[in-house]
Structures are given as structure tokens and as C-alpha cells.
Amino acid sequence: MSLSIPSPTGRRVAGRSASHGFTLIELLIVIAIILILIAIALPNFLEAQERARVARGKAHLRGMETAVFSFMTQYGFLYSDYNDPFLVKLKTRNRGSGNPNLPCTVDAPNPPSNGGLSFETGEFQKNFYAPSVHCPLTTPVKFIDSASTVDPWSDGTVPVGFDSRYIQFGGGGDNPKGIVYSAYFVSGPDRRAGDWVRGNGVVDWGGDGCMDGLPYSPTNGTTSRGELWVVMGDWAQLVTTLELPCGSAKREYGIQKTY
Predict the structure, then answer these.
(1) Global pTM exceeds 0.70
(2) Would you list the domain boundaries of the chain?
(3) Where do the H-state alpha helices sit in 94-248?
């Protein structure tokens, strides 16, 4: 049976249903509502992602701290970065193997890319973020999984930043125990690697007139500038024995941990 529907002219038109689809205005209203919901939800989603990366960065630093303590317990010293004297690198990175490439390299390899982070210079990246810089923690003894030594804000190719401080206490400059501290950094939500460098901070954390590194704080905003770090070593000794103007660990970074 066909239906008759009144037409605008008053005639009845056979075969047309009384129901009809959305009008253009109705569709535009629906689209506008969807866009508003996306605008509200997207920032919260992105912020949640950053908070998750912050949590992962802190977890990586805690893992590094545990691994370095285990390394120190086994070998009796810290391992060096690529800036320390050759013999110190040979003794701490290769445990006196005599081979500058086994089990870990002594000379810094060139990074394949910036890995999604920004660095002050390419040389800065090579010195403190070179691939395999944490090889002593994973080879031949696996103190930590290599995936936990990566900066979570990078694309997976940039390791946790690493800076060691060697002090020659006499002798030939090859005493592995001359490495008095080592510091580890993750870039933070701004993806800027290097804010740990002395002078980037705006607070005199050490109380000695020296501007320290810039720590990340979520109270300044989830994506605010700053880095997360941990400093390993004899903290009490660093404060009392290193009389380098703004150069000891406490003066350089101001605070030992940012988590």
C-alpha cells in the first residue's frame, strides 16, 4: 500500500515516507559538537602522555641509580664518560682489558641523528649522549636492560645523558677512583637536552652564588622547560673536598635528585 503525503502545494504525493534524513544544519551542529569535544579532550590526552613520559623518565633514572650502585659494588669505581682521560676510560669502561674497543668503546661513536631532541651542538651530543655510552652497565655483566638506558622523549636512539667528573688526586692520572661522581639526565617534556649544564638554572640551589642546572618541575606546567637527573657518588666528599668554583657536583647541579 502506498502512502500519500501532503505536498507544499496541498497535493498528496504517493510513495514518499513521512520520515526524512538529517538536514545540513543538523549535520553541521553534530560536527561542531564533535570538534568541541575533541578540543576539550585532546589537550588532556597529550598532557596525560607527557605525565606518562615523566613517570617513565623517573623510572629510568631510578633504574640507572640501582645499576650504577651494583656496578660500583662489583668493581669498586664508577665508569667514565667519553670526556675523561684515555687511561681512565680504558680502566673503567673496559676494566683494564687493554683493548680500547672491548668490551666497550673508549672513543665516542658519532650519533646517527638528534633522535628528536635538540642539543646545544653536535659535539655536545657526541660527548654526553653518544651511542653505547652506558655499555659498561650492559656488557659483559647486565646490570640494567638497555631499553631502560634510553631517554623516553627521544625516538629511542638517544641514551640517558651522562656526565662524569674526574679529579686527579696525584699519580699518573689513570686512577679509576678519581671519578668522584657521575650524573644522569633525561631531557624532559621540552625535549631540550642540556638544561642540566651549570648556569641554565634560575635558582641558586647550592646557596653559594652559583647558578645551577635547570630542573624540571610539573608545578611550572606539564610541558615546562627543565630536566630530570640523578647524581651518583660520595656526596659528602664532593661537598668538602672539591673546591672548584661552581664546579663540584653540589655546585654544578645544586640538587642530587630531581625525582
Answers:
(1) yes
(2) 56-253
(3) 122-128, 135-138, 235-241
